Amino acid sequence: MTKEADTGPLEAAKRVLKHNDRRLWTVPASDIYPHQWLWDSCFIAIGLRHIDIERAKTELNSLLRGQWQNGMLPNMIFDSGSAYRRDRQLWRSWLNPYAPHDVATSGITQPPMLADAIVKVGEKLKLPQRRSWYKSMYPALVAYHEWIYGERDPHKEGLAVLLHPYESGLDNTPPWISELRKHSMPWWITLIERLHLDGLINIFRRDTRHVPPGQRMSNIEAMAYWAALRRLRRKVYNSEAILSRSLFAVEDLAFNCILIRANARLKQIAKTIGKPLPEKLLADMARTEAALEQLWDPDSGQYYYRSFVSRKLIYQTTIATLLPLYAGTIPNERAKHLVELLKHRKYFGASWPVPSIPLDSPYFDPYKYWQGPTWINTNWLILDGLDRYGFNKEVDILRARTLQLVSQKGMNEYFSPLNGQPAGTPNFSWTAALTVDLLKPS
Ligand code: GLC
């Protein structure tokens, strides 16, 4: 199924999307990711809009099945099949009174790509249909943004705080790993690590049955993430209760950049349908743009993640460093500076850009998940930002290189930035969908 070369990337991408289509939603990949994921479905809808607009709408609508009564959109909605009981049991979303009754979900969220996806789908509709599309999604979208500010910005500072690295979407990105090692490593995991017993964990992992272990997070990281998840579950995913004691909570740079863009998109939707947004939400949203400045470090000339607990910046450069371009609210001078980092051979200017962490990072490994490989969704976010800032030459180059990568190497989950070697799972939905979007077939 992955032999694309003869038919070209558009047909190959369509085949992957069809293969992973579960009628009302699309799984990220059939074996390793058998459920519906929040930001995956947003990227998928952005591609599907070129192929089948009704199916793109359905993809986003299906996400609302999982919405909690408090507005939270979970990062996963589980398949109800008997094969996946263990996944549902691991999260036990039903312990929380706000969780939906008819589907099992996770208890945490993922980057708020929904507003942008709704608008991108809307762009393909004539104004009257666009309005009714926006109207149908508006209440859920407002409730979601209200939940983000209500639960995840407790000091009303404008930056959303995340409770688990899975919420970042960049699961084992170095800022989260370094926080984890500092504040949240249970003693028994440290012991397992010292005694080199971590190989035992392989029996519990689905991902390493499908993808070589060297391309996934380590067993120690996976175990620590599982322990962190259990702590959230013990508090039935109640953000206030979790935040009152946690040492492991992060103001995530990527998430907040995406939130800034999502807020702008939400305003655009409200304007198009002539519905004023709630005053309180507007005030909350207004703080975020200004608050991004708190993540800027003038000495190193970079944006960083910040620990919610210590209030200190976490000095690890990652792909998120470039995402203020996608946020779109930083001054042109700053944007120019980020573009220099993007092109610099020592940092992000790899042969097959854009690596998920800079080439000079001590964490860098070309195959290790979010610690080196090039991912198509982050390329897409950077391209979208570059385009709005008018970096046309850079857009042309990165777009062409991204399309060469998927055309030559396949619709994989990620790729080595050094030689383009495909890694992770093959037939990955957002790679396929965003390829379709970059090809702009219609
Ligand atoms: C991994 C990724 C996450 C994605 C999920 C499903 O957990 O880190 O971003 O949503 O897989 O594709």
C-alpha Rg (nearest Å): 20 Å
Helix and strand content put the structural class at mainly alpha
What is the residue-averaged pLDDT?
A: 95
- Alpha plus pi helix count: 18
Termini Cα gap: 25 Å
Enumerate the strands of the largest sheet in spatial order, edge to edge or round the barrel: 3-4-7-8
What are the low-pLDDT stretches, counting only 5+ consecutive residues below 50? 1-5
Biggest sheet record: 4 strands, antiparallel
Bound molecules: alpha-D-glucopyranose
Structure report:
It is built from 18 helices and 10 strands. By secondary structure, it is mainly alpha-helical. A 4-stranded antiparallel β-sheet has the order 3-4-7-8. Strands 1-2 form a two-stranded antiparallel ribbon. A two-stranded antiparallel sheet has the order 5-6. The longest helix is centred in the N-terminal third of the chain and has 26 residues, at 127-152. The two termini are 25 Å apart. The site of alpha-D-glucopyranose has 7 residues, from helix 2.
